[in-house]
Write a structure and sequence with these properties.
By secondary structure, this protein is an alpha/beta fold. The chain is built from eleven helices and ten strands. Bound molecules: 5'-O-[(R)-(carboxyoxy)(hydroxy)phosphoryl]adenosine and zinc ion.
Length: 337
């Protein structure tokens, strides 16, 4: 089978610190395996690229085997092999793309090079009856914060992005300042549940900048100023107030972007879309504004291969494939500059 709507796709994602493999039949998910390296990176308080790459190399083959086992298919049945080609850590990207290319060559099947950001962006549509449709996409991950107008598969307009730290990066850096384990995001979220979000009036940076850009580094600095007094402050209040400031800006700018572009659907994606307060406030704001909100289930918000496989399956169904000399691109953009 060269392409079609029900081909079997095996997708590999190794852009950062998760080794992930998914198997899809058409756009139906048969298996999704994620081997997290968090335990490794907790020791260093962040990702060390060489450590990440070595671990991808160590676990990729067993993770592929587990995914095939879960899906109940053999490698020889796969119709196309896909991998994330960027953005991400060069050495990590090289492991996944080399494996997918090798399999494609070995089994004489097409190879599909996929953009990690497109994977995140379209993940909220995965499993929906309508599939990809016009929407405002907000990607909030450890590496990116961007508002995107989605017109159709492969047709995106970048409305705005962060000028410094990504939202997830801000959560992780503030987590580190507060002495929480890596990555800080989920820990801040958990602690914030017990805290008072109005305890500290942290800046809502660029809320009224009149565009769709973001900035989170000032907020991180505002938290740093509290550090000398931290021992006497309720940690939960700091977490809740910081989180509220991030969430307020994300929600407000997303709703404004939908209004400005006359979109009726909001598609929220990326690791930070696991955040309970963001989900809650985005849901309430979308309801008030008469917008339909799509959020992927939490397992598809953080890095996974199912979202890579979904984009690959949609492109494969259109007859697309990538040349085997398609290189990795650590700085790959969603929309070419
Ligand atoms: O999408 P992702 O898995 O990887 C990237 O492509 O970057 O996102 C990871 C980011 C990390 O910064 C992590 O702290 C954040 O998502 N994150 C959260 C939560 N869960 C994950 N941030 C806030 N609240 C959460 N519950
Ligand atoms: Zn990601």
């Amino acid at each position: 089978m060269r392409s079609g709507t029900s081909g079997l796709v095996l997708a590999i994602e190794t852009s950062c610190d998760e080794t992930a493999v998914a198997v899809l039949r058409g756009t139906q998910l048969l298996a999704s395996e994620v081997a997290s390296q968090i335990a490794l990176h907790v020791i260093t308080g962040g990702v060390v690229p060489e450590v990440a790459a070595r671990d991808h190399l160590r676990v990729l083959k067993p993770v592929i085997q587990r995914a095939l086992g879960d899906a109940g298919i053999a490698l020889a049945e796969v119709d196309a092999f896909a991998a994330t080609r960027g953005p991400g850590l060069a050495t990590s990207l090289m492991i996944g793309t080399s494996a997918a290319k090798g399999l494609a060559v070995g089994f004489r099947k097409p190879y599909l090079a996929i953009n990690h950001l497109e994977g995140h962006l379209l993940s909220p549509f995965f499993g929906t009856a309508e599939g990809v449709r016009p929407a405002i996409g907000l990607i909030v991950s450890g590496g990116h914060t961007m508002l995107v107008q989605i017109e159709a598969l492969g047709r995106y307009q970048l409305l705005g992005q962060t000028q410094d730290d990504a939202a997830g990066e801000a959560f992780d850096k503030v987590g580190k300042l507060l002495g929480l384990p890596y990555p800080g995001g989920p820990h801040v979220d958990r602690l914030a549940k017990e805290g008072n979000a109005a305890a500290f009036d942290f800046p809502r940076s660029m809320l009224d900048s009149g565009d769709f850009a973001f900035s989170f580094s000032g907020l991180k600095t505002a938290v740093r100023y509290l550090l000398p007094k931290l021992a006497t402050l309720p940690l939960a209040d700091v977490c809740a107030s910081f989180q509220e400031a991030v969430v307020d800006v994300l929600v407000e700018k997303t709703v404004r972007a939908a209004r400005a572009t006359r979109q009726r659907v909001v598609a929220l994606s990326g690791g930070v879309s696991c955040n309970s307060r963001l989900r809650e406030k985005m849901r309430a704001a979308c309801e008030r504004a008469g917008l339909e909100l799509l959020i992927a289930p939490p397992a598809l918000c953080t890095d996974n291969a199912a979202m890579i496989g979904y984009v690959a399956a949609l492109k494969f169904a259109q007859g697309a494939s990538s040349p085997l000399d398609a290189d990795i691109d650590p700085n790959l953009r969603l929309v070419p500059a």
